[in-house]
Amino acid sequence: MPMIKKSILFVSFLLITSFFTSCFQKPEEVDALVETPQAFTTWEKIQQRGKIIAVTEYNSTDYFIYRGQPMGFHYELLQKLSDYLGIKIEIVLNNDLVDNFAMLQSGDYDLIAMNLTVTRDRRKMLDFTRPIMQTRQVLVQRKPDGWRNMTQKQYNEKLLRSALDLSGKKVSVKKKSSYVDRLKSLSEEIGDTIYINEMEHYTEDEIIELLANKELDYTICDENIAKVNATYYDNIDIKTPVSFSQNIAWAVPKGADTLKAYINKWIMDNVSKKWFVNLYRKYYSNHKSSVRIKSEYYSLKDSRISKYDETIKKYSKTINWDWRLVSSLVYQESHFNPEAVSWAGAQGLMQLMPNTAKRFGISDSSAPSKNIEAGIKLIAWLDKQLKTSVKDSLERQKFILASYNIGLGHIQDAQKLAEKNGANPALWENNVEKYLKLKENPNYYLDPVVSYGYCRGSNACKYVKEVLNRYQEYVKVIEL
């Protein structure tokens, strides 16, 4: 699993707002969606599949997990886009640019959602959306020894302060990245050789880490990424630009005009809004991001979710559940806060109600490990109650999660309603899930087969979805 670090951009709120407002004017062509044979095929495939498959990078700004929560600039943008389109977006993690381009062209991916520099060569093989942002490329180099005691003049004399100074230098960059193209152009412009070291399977963050640790001398990368890394490594200098500002955008397959038009409309409607600016600042201009790299619960540093991993692993084995699924449940319940108390009186990591806690031998003063043990015992009890009616163990997990949230009686009511109305009482999605939601309707919660009356079933259905979705995110990057 790649070790990847972080990135931050120091720009004031007003400057960012001004930039986004001035750079993104609404074009006339997005008022109508263009259909071509390939576009129709792409969009039709998405509709038939019921989801968009988007790839992003596993790194310090695009996607990572921190203290149990999936995070990242492009990850959060994709969640917003999913809500806007009303279509699920499945996120794939792949740091190999060449592979990503090939998978997009073959139709395995529908969208590349990462910091892609728009270049002429790339336009030949894929289509870009409207820009998400703009940035320039800068040279990253180590500060000279003793730099803290130098005058500004002495400091600058020890560093490369012009692209011309790269003549005869070895510069290490991500393989097949836009940085390779820029270095080739610079070599032509200065009329001398720049030795390009293309590093396969390395991200910008990892290359900068090697440079900071004196294993490499020079690299170039986007300025926003460089500025984030400069908050982690105080011995790197990022003040020498090597390009003009360049557009950063997402990519779709050639001719996928319908998908591109929908995304472009969403970008235009949102890119200058306050939430977008705040999201940008959160990942590229947040001084607190430097705390993240030092945390043992940062997935790019260690394959841990919380300080309770070992306890959760221990008790998860007793019910044959993936510990990452149990961790997702614990995050949903308490965000790993052992002191959490709900408005209804549920307590601890597993948010057990007082009567349930007492039933399994714990109190509000019990250790967190005991709270986890009791929560696992509750899951085991629910599993036993549901085993006869839901024989498939993976399907039964959904019923157990819903029962954990809202109570077994309401789930059994929903099963009875499903069976009465011709649905499958042993299937969750579009079956029992549907009738649990309908228990908010008096036409259903007053039905003679119902024993436990009204409930806010939609909340429990949302609970199941969120726990399972977070679990799938854990599976991508947290080792079993």
Q: How would you summarize what this structure contains?
A:
The chain has 480 residues and is α/β, with parallel strands linked by helices. The protein contains 21 helices and 13 strands.
Number of strands: 13
**How much of the polypeptide forms β-strand, as a percent range?**
5-15%
Major sheet summary line: 6 strands, mixed
Question: Which structural class do you get from the secondary structure elements?
Answer: alpha/beta
Say which CATH homologous superfamily of the largest domain is assigned. Answer: Periplasmic binding protein-like II
- How many domains comprise the coordinates? 3
Assembly state (oligomeric): single chain
- State the end-to-end distance: 13 Å
Q: What's the CATH topology name of the largest domain?
A: D-Maltodextrin-Binding Protein, domain 2
CATH architecture of the largest domain: 3-Layer(aba) Sandwich
Report the CATH C-level class of the largest domain. Answer: Alpha Beta
Low-confidence stretches: 1-35
Share of helix among residues? 40-55%
Q: Quote the average pLDDT.
A: 90
Overall spatial form = elongated
Number of helices: 21
Radius of gyration: 26 Å
Describe the structure using short key phrases.
480 residues, alpha/beta, D-Maltodextrin-Binding Protein, domain 2, Lysozyme, 6-stranded mixed β-sheet, 21 helices, 13 strands, elongated, disordered N terminus
